[in-house]
């Protein structure tokens, strides 16, 4: 039997005001049967066609309706909900909803989620044939398609209003079939990935520390991309001001020593390790117990090397597929290749850092090497680069584990 590609996929199902809303009940049942998690969000108009209680019972989750519902927001805020979704599927999508989406309104919970989410949006329109053919709707559909929104259907045939023509919502079975075709098997389904991210802080005294300019964005983007690829992700993070991606286990640490301890406690249980943290190389030998006073013209801070987490992971037995980063201001290729060999890594992602490059920026450029190969991932946003790197890692990881199994 073929495994459902919707297994554990998170579908945010938007239901808007159309008589076809009664078909959403059947759609939810089929999605759940296919293994998907379904969170229903209804517009106020939808709730006049079908009761939230019905959709709640079928989806197994409280239906969300109100942007200002204090209790629901406390359980899972709308931004969190927007991040949770792998797909936003709106079925039925009314003419009014198409219009609101086109102009980017955020006047109810569902429209707000569509604006706030980066997940792909699929619309399954249902409306009277004249409404569908109206130039305003035609225009809205063209603009939305131009933005990459998928529009499925409508089908032609008898309409609830007694007319014949285009405007019928696609049947639930057909919608689920199309979603199955869309959902490629997750690249890292069930694979355990541990990622370090952010800077570390090395205490000088109770109020001061040594740190660096790492924002943690690359590591957090990798955690999200790995999660999206189906992995079970643990993120060991130094102090950063980023929201962790949903569905990821986060372990917060401050110092290199703490990061080392947390990573080594879990290394035996992970398949892939990605060291994206900018770990301090040195730490004050003995942090002062009391705040240092400025009563001397000159002081000396004695530093000692921190443990190299990445090298320790690569030396562990059994060891995960180990990926490091090389941030260099000069001789990038030479230093990166040397680091790959010295730390016995499976892969290293090299980027050039310096003023306006790498740290604290949105954009990055990565060049990746492994024993016997290399690939330029180009320049892009950290989010996009993270996706490309996770794809490459899963490719190499797949090859290595196949080689091990046959060898
Ligand atoms: O040797 P260098 O610090 O340049 O290597 C960078 C890589 O090593 C990064 O992947 C970083 O996360 C990792 N690293 C580490 N522990 C250290 C120093 C660096 O895991 N103490």
Description:
It is elongated, with a radius of gyration of 25 Å. The longest helix is centred in the last third of the chain and has 25 residues, at about 380-405. By secondary structure, the chain is α/β, with parallel strands linked by helices. The two termini are about 30 Å apart. Helices cover about 35% and strands about 25% of the residues. The chain has helices at about 20-35, 50-60, 70-75, 80-85, 95-100, 110-115, 130-135, 135-145, 170-180, 215-230, 255-265, 310-315, 330-340, 380-405, and strands spanning about 10-15, 35-40, 85-95, 120-125, 150, 155-160, 165-170, 190-195, 200-205, 210, 230-235, 250, 270-275, 280-285, 305, 320-330, 345-350, 365-370, 375-380. The protein is built from 14 helices and 19 strands. Strand 9 and strand 10 (about 210) form a beta hairpin. An 8-stranded mixed beta sheet has the order 12-11-8-13-16-17-18-19, sandwiched between helices. Strands 2-1-3-4-5 form a 5-stranded parallel beta sheet, sandwiched between helices. The chain folds into 2 domains: about 1-180, 3-Layer(aba) Sandwich (Rossmann fold), CATH 3.40.50.1950; about 190-405, Rossmann fold (3-Layer(aba) Sandwich). Helix 1 packs across helix 9, helix 5 packs across helix 8 and helix 10 (about 215-230) packs across helix 14 (about 380-405). It binds cytidine-5'-monophosphate (C5P).
């Amino acid at each position: 039997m073929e495994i459902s590609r919707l297994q554990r996929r998170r579908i945010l199902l938007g239901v808007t005001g159309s008589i076809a809303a009664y078909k959403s009940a059947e759609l939810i049942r089929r999605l759940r049967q296919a293994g998907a998690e379904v969170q229903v969000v209804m517009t106020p108009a939808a709730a006049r066609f079908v009761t939230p209680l019905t959709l709640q019972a079928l989806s197994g989750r409280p239906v969300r309706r109100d942007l200002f519902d204090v209790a629901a927001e406390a359980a899972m805020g709308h931004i969190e909900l927007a991040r949770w979704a792998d797909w936003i599927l709106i079925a039925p999508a009314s003419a009014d909803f198409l219009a609101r989406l086109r102009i980017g309104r955020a006047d109810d919970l569902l429209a707000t989620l569509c604006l706030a989410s980066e997940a792909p949006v699929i619309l399954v329109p249902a409306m009277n044939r004249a409404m569908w053919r109206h130039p305003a709707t035609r225009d809205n559909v063209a603009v939305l398609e131009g933005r990459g929104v998928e529009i499925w259907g409508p089908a032609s045939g008898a309409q609830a209003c007694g007319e014949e023509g285009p405007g019928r919502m696609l049947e639930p079975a057909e919608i689920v079939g199309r979603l199955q075709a869309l959902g490629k098997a997750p690249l890292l389904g069930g694979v355990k990935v541990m990622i370090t991210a952010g800077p570390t802080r090395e205490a000088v005294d109770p109020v001061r520390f040594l740190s660096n300019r790492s924002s943690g964005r690359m590591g957090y983007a990798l955690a999200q991309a790995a999660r999206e690829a189906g992995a079970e992700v643990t993120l060991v993070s130094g102090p950063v001001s980023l929201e962790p991606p949903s569905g990821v286990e986060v372990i917060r640490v401050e110092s290199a020593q703490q990061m080392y301890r947390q990573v080594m406690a879990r290394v035996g249980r992970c398949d892939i390790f990605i060291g994206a943290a900018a770990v301090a190389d040195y730490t004050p030998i003995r942090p002062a117990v009391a705040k240092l006073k400025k009563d001397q013209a000159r002081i000396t801070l004695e530093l000692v090397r921190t443990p190299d987490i990445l090298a320790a992971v690569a030396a562990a037995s059994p060891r995960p597929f180990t990926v490091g980063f090389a941030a260099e201001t000069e001789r990038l290729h030479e230093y990166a290749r040397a680091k790959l060999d010295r730390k016995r890594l499976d892969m290293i992602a090299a980027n050039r850092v310096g003023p306006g490059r790498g740290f604290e920026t949105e954009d990055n450029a990565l060049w990746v090497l492994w024993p016997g190969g290399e690939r330029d991932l180009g320049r892009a946003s950290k989010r996009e680069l993270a996706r490309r790197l996770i794809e490459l890692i899963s490719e190499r990881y797949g090859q290595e584990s196949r080689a091990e199994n046959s060898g």
